[in-house]
Specification:
This protein is mainly α and 84 residues long. Helices cover 55% and strands 10% of the residues. The chain has one domain. It has a two-stranded parallel ribbon with strand order 1-2. β1, α2 and β2 form a beta-alpha-beta unit. It is globular, with a radius of gyration of 14 Å.
Length: 84
């Protein structure tokens, strides 16, 4: 599963995406993914996730909500296209 996520990011972005925001779910968190996004010079907008005994702060929750608003608008379009 981890390799799939890493490969998915690498195949999704290229040089043409430089300077753009990269929105994704918390599945795509981690140092390897962050390095790929940084190497492509994109703005990391991946939702953060909490861990056991280290929950998200209120600020992180707010930021995730902002990121999710954009993601949901795009994902709903793809979901509609898939059903059609």
């Amino acid at each position: 599963m981890f390799r799939y996520s890493l490969q998915a990011i690498d195949g999704l972005i290229d040089e043409n995406d430089k300077g753009e925001s990269f929105f994704a779910g918390s599945k795509y968190t981690g140092e390897p993914q962050e390095k790929i996004i940084e190497s492509k010079q994109m703005i990391n907008k991946i939702c953060e996730k909490g861990y056991r005994n280290k929950p998200l702060t209120q600020e992180q929750k707010y930021q995730n909500a902002e990121k999710s608003r954009t993601r949901s608008r795009v994902e709903h379009i793809f979901g509609f296209m898939e059903k059609a």
